[in-house]
């Protein structure tokens, strides 16, 4: 029955996409790429260099008389791509993209060859058998005035002109749509980036052997080959993603938020999501608690509450995934509806109340996954003769387990100790969640006396278990952003005194910042997450970093800093970088993932890597706490 329902759902999505294509005729979008023709071959090769900041012009003229009817200019973005929206139908006109200005003086010559001038003609009508709102123009190139034919020059150009291309699949948007995402600016940016990356990959499909033609003299351009079947499939996949973003997103937005979220988890659990194949940038790798993280970007607790989709989520490119919160006894949580979207603000209000299948069900699921993973690793190791070195107990990534208490429990420490005894064997780190605003009395456990007593008891439960050479999993506490300076000082004192392994800063807020205070849903009870939380949580993060980085006496430093995980409002690589500079060794996101989808993860990692390079940091660890020094 489940498979049948899945087939019906996918069929319905495809049907809706086709309907959208058939009737979406108001605006056409012209996409293309501009490059520097390093070898004066007059066609795009693997060593051609995409130009950022080049200016192009779209012109349409009457087929008879030549009167200009449309003129629109655009500048190229990263990877040399441009996008020009066009209103109306231009079936009776001749339209073409023309080079206007190059950003490089030494690469600004425009070919006078007829084939070069005609290469960017494009049909701007829906009556020519082409469906969909997007039109792909052929690449256009400025020629180098002088060519250096030396091998070193060619190698240097090739390395610069071939950055890694993202991994996207047509199925990629499914998780984005199911994660309660309406059409949004973030989804649109991710879609445009995918399109730019695809155009670059398509343009790079020319034979690498063309590098042999480099010389100081212009070469006769060979006939431009037709795209292969793979190229056509990539074109269809890209258009499918754009169509789905505009057509299927609204369909999922009509669903109840929690139903849509369940579909997202199911998609990830069944492997209906893309897998990141490329290695992470080397400057993002770091070691925390003796665990090696390939990158510091994690998925916060709350998305996969019951450990249903750990492998699929790690496969998206997260450095670590945190499941939960998991309670000892199954509980349904608070009554529905309990999740509310604030779309324009990129925020969510939730009052779920620790809905959980319980530690027994989660332990069975993690145990089965762990056993299968060990079997796979043994098979690979024996067949290849090489030692398999996973990142953690979840395979290539790190797995965190977030523990909660039951709503009706009178002994909170007993609940957390039970979670430790049952689930710690599967966790790379454990989290005591004492900051959810949706469980009555839970936040009172953040008080100095209550927190100290709780942490000591949970640490005791962990330490009384038998551990191998790697030792017990680190124990962290997740705190709220709605804390006074005195509260933060008390928490820092407890963390330092008990040698707590880390803190997660922060959970959702019960306050309503000015940016959302006038929203119709602002009065709904629950915790607010997303973009409006960023400044508040970052300020708390910075304050806690300062409080825990060191305690000095007249003799020496008696206590080092405590690793912090920054969480709250991250939606870009720049946001993640600000968290790191404020003191976070690792960062987590959730709401932005719901709005931006899988395409957001590689985008954030790339932007974060660029931020580090821009400021001269060789590794992410060097930037931790930079704003507090």
Automatic annotation (TrEMBL):
<feature type="domain" description="Dihydroorotate dehydrogenase catalytic">
    <location>
        <begin position="286"/>
        <end position="612"/>
    </location>
</feature>
<protein>
    <recommendedName>
        <fullName>Dihydroorotate dehydrogenase (quinone), mitochondrial</fullName>
        <ecNumber>1.3.5.2</ecNumber>
    </recommendedName>
</protein>
<dbReference type="GO" id="GO:0044205">
    <property type="term" value="P:'de novo' UMP biosynthetic process"/>
</dbReference>
<comment type="pathway">
    <text>Pyrimidine metabolism; UMP biosynthesis via de novo pathway; orotate from (S)-dihydroorotate (quinone route): step 1/1.</text>
</comment>
<keyword id="KW-0999">Mitochondrion inner membrane</keyword>
<keyword id="KW-0732">Signal</keyword>
<dbReference type="InterPro" id="IPR013785">
    <property type="entry name" value="Aldolase_TIM"/>
</dbReference>
<dbReference type="InterPro" id="IPR005719">
    <property type="entry name" value="Dihydroorotate_DH_2"/>
</dbReference>
<keyword id="KW-0809">Transit peptide</keyword>
<keyword id="KW-0288">FMN</keyword>
<keyword id="KW-0560">Oxidoreductase</keyword>
<feature type="region of interest" description="Disordered">
    <location>
        <begin position="374"/>
        <end position="399"/>
    </location>
</feature>
<feature type="signal peptide">
    <location>
        <begin position="1"/>
        <end position="24"/>
    </location>
</feature>
<dbReference type="Pfam" id="PF01190">
    <property type="entry name" value="Pollen_Ole_e_1"/>
</dbReference>
<dbReference type="GO" id="GO:0006207">
    <property type="term" value="P:'de novo' pyrimidine nucleobase biosynthetic process"/>
</dbReference>
<dbReference type="Pfam" id="PF01180">
    <property type="entry name" value="DHO_dh"/>
</dbReference>
<dbReference type="GO" id="GO:0106430">
    <property type="term" value="F:dihydroorotate dehydrogenase (quinone) activity"/>
</dbReference>
<keyword id="KW-0496">Mitochondrion</keyword>
<keyword id="KW-0472">Membrane</keyword>
<comment type="similarity">
    <text>Belongs to the dihydroorotate dehydrogenase family. Type 2 subfamily.</text>
</comment>
<keyword id="KW-0285">Flavoprotein</keyword>
<keyword id="KW-0812">Transmembrane</keyword>
<dbReference type="InterPro" id="IPR005720">
    <property type="entry name" value="Dihydroorotate_DH_cat"/>
</dbReference>
<dbReference type="InterPro" id="IPR001295">
    <property type="entry name" value="Dihydroorotate_DH_CS"/>
</dbReference>
<dbReference type="GO" id="GO:0005743">
    <property type="term" value="C:mitochondrial inner membrane"/>
</dbReference>
<dbReference type="InterPro" id="IPR050074">
    <property type="entry name" value="DHO_dehydrogenase"/>
</dbReference>
<keyword id="KW-1133">Transmembrane helix</keyword>
């Amino acid at each position: 029955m489940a498979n049948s329902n899945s087939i019906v759902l996918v069929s319905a999505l495809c049907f809706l996409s086709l309907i959208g294509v058939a009737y979406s005729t108001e605006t056409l979008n012209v996409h293309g790429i501009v490059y520097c023709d390093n070898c004066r071959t007059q066609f795009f090769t693997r060593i051609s260099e995409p130009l950022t900041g080049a200016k192009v012009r779209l012109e349409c003229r009457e087929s008879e008389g030549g009167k200009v009817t449309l003129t629109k200019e655009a500048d190229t973005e990263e990877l040399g791509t441009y996008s020009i929206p066009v209103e109306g139908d231009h079936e009776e006109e001749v339209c073409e993209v023309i080079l206007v200005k190059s950003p490089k003086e030494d690469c600004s010559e425009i070919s006078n060859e007829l084939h070069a001038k005609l290469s960017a003609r494009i049909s701007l009508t829906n009556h020519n058998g082409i469906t969909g709102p997007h039109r792909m123009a052929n690449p256009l190139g400025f020629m180098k005035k002088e060519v250096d034919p030396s091998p070193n020059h060619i190698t240097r150009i090739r390395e610069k002109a071939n950055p890694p291309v993202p991994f996207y699949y047509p199925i990629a948007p499914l998780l984005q749509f199911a994660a309660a995402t309406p059409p949004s600016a973030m989804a649109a940016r991710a879609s445009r980036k995918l399109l730019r990356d695809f155009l670059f990959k398509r343009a790079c499909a020319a034979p690498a052997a063309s590098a042999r033609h480099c010389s100081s003299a212009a070469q006769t351009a060979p006939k431009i080959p037709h795209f292969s079947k793979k190229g056509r499939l990539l074109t269809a996949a890209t258009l499918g993603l754009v169509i789905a973003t505009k057509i299927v997103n609204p369909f999922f937005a009509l669903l109840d938020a929690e139903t849509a979220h369940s579909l997202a988890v199911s998609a990830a659990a069944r492997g209906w999501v893309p897998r990141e194949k490329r290695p992470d940038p080397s400057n993002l790798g770091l070691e925390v608690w003796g665990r090696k993280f390939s990158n510091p970007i994690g998925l916060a607790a709350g998305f996969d509450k019951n450990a249903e989709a750990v492998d699929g989520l790690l496969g998206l490119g997260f450095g670590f995934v945190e499941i939960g919160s998991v309670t000892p006894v199954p509980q349904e949580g608070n009554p529905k509806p309990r999740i509310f979207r604030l779309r324009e603000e990129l925020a969510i209000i939730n009052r779920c109340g620790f809905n959980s299948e319980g530690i027994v069900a989660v332990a069975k699921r993690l145990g089965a996954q762990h056993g299968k993973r060990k079997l796979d690793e043994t098979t690979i190791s024996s067949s290849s003769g090489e030692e398999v070195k996973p990142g953690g107990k979840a395979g290539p990534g790190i797995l965190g387990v977030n523990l909660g208490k039951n709503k009706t429990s009178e002994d909170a420490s007993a609940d957390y100790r039970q979670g430790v005894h049952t689930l710690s064997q599967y966790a790379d780190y454990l989290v005591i969640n004492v900051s959810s605003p949706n469980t009555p009395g839970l936040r009172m456990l953040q008080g100095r006396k209550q927190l100290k007593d709780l942490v000591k008891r949970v640490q005791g439960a962990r330490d009384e278990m038998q551990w191998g050479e790697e030792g017990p999993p680190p124990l962290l506490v997740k705190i709220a952003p709605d804390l006074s300076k005195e509260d933060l000082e008390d928490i820092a004192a407890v963390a330092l005194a008990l040698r707590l392994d880390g803190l997660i800063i922060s959970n959702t807020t019960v306050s309503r910042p000015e940016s959302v205070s006038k929203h119709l849903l602002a009065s709904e009870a629950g915790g607010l997450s997303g973009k409006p939380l960023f400044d508040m949580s970052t300020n708390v993060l910075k304050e806690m970093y300062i409080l825990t980085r060191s305690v000095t006496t007249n003799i020496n430093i008696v206590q080092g800093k405590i690793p912090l995980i920054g969480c709250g409002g991250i939606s870009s690589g720049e946001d993640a970088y600000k968290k790191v500079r404020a003191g976070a060794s690792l960062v987590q996101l959730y709401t932005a993932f719901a709005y931006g989808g899988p395409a957001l993860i590689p985008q954030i990692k790339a932007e974060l890597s660029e931020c580090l390079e821009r400021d001269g940091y060789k590794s992410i660890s060097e930037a931790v706490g930079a704003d507090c020094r």
